[in-house]
Amino acid sequence: NAVARVEGPVAQLPAGAMRVSLGGEYAVHDHKLWLNQNIRNYTNTFQTVRDTFVERKISSGFVETFVPLFGPDNARAGLQRLDLSLAVRYDDYSDFGGTTNPKIGVTWKPSNSLDVRGTWGKAFRAPTLTETNPQTISLVTRQNVANGSGDPSLPITDPLTGSTYMFQRIGNTAGLQPETAEVWSVGLDYEPARVEGLR
Questions:
Q1: Where are the beta strands (DSSP E) in 40-164?
Q2: Rounded distance, CA 148 to CA 163, Å?
Q3: Phi-psi category of 78—alpha, beta or left, where left has phi over 0 and alpha has psi -120 to 50?
Q4: For residue range 123-167, what is the model confidence (pLDDT) as tens digits?
Q5: Which stretches of the chain are DSSP H helices?
């Protein structure tokens, strides 16, 4: 994974400095699974039963900006403070293509006692390599822990060790698609000037 970013003030506005951050990212994810299983009634004969490799490459670019519209130097009635933040990120997946996800945030201070804030954005999450590759499914059953014979006539629960036969399936099937979301939030902070310490 490699990330390059530059950031800093780009303009001086009446309410303060406008700041910008921009950069790029490149990531490579890979998953290798090799299973060598003991066969023939658990003797010392082994056989490779699964050998799979999957890879994903992601190229990304992003830009974020913070814009103070009103602040101490240009405050007015109902606008003690007003800040705007904007961000957008583009990701290009080798297996899912490109996706662009913006985010907007606003902080408004109409008076010294009240802060109102809100955000809106879109999100994207690609399934992991394990989730999308059917070859990574695992099937597990308990062998006879007591004597190593693997005799199927043994009881389901081994009376000597308390071990129980188990069938476990881990993994997913091909064709699983990414998750997308639209996310928003609204909140406020109220701190009455007449009641010290109350927030």
A1: 45-70, 81-93, 97-111, 114-125, 138-140
A2: 13
A3: left
A4: 999 998 878 776 655 555 444 444 444 455 555 666 777 766 555
A5: 129-132
Q: Residue 143 and residue 150: Cα distance in Å, rounded?
A: 5
The SS3 call for residue 137 is: coil
Structure tokens at 172: 């997913």
What is the C-alpha separation between 10 and 21, in angstroms, rounded? 10
| CB burial readout 63-86, b (16+ within 10 A) else e | ebbbbbbbbeeeeeeebbbbbebe
DSSP secondary structure letter of residue 172: -
pLDDT in tens, 15-38: 999 999 999 999 999 988 777 766
Structure tokens at 190: 């109220």
- pLDDT tens string 64-116: 999 999 999 999 999 999 999 999 999 999 999 999 999 999 999 999 899 99
Whole-prediction pTM: 0.72
| Rounded (10°) CA dihedral 110, 114, 120, 123 | 150
Q: How far apart are the first and last CA of the chain?
A: 43
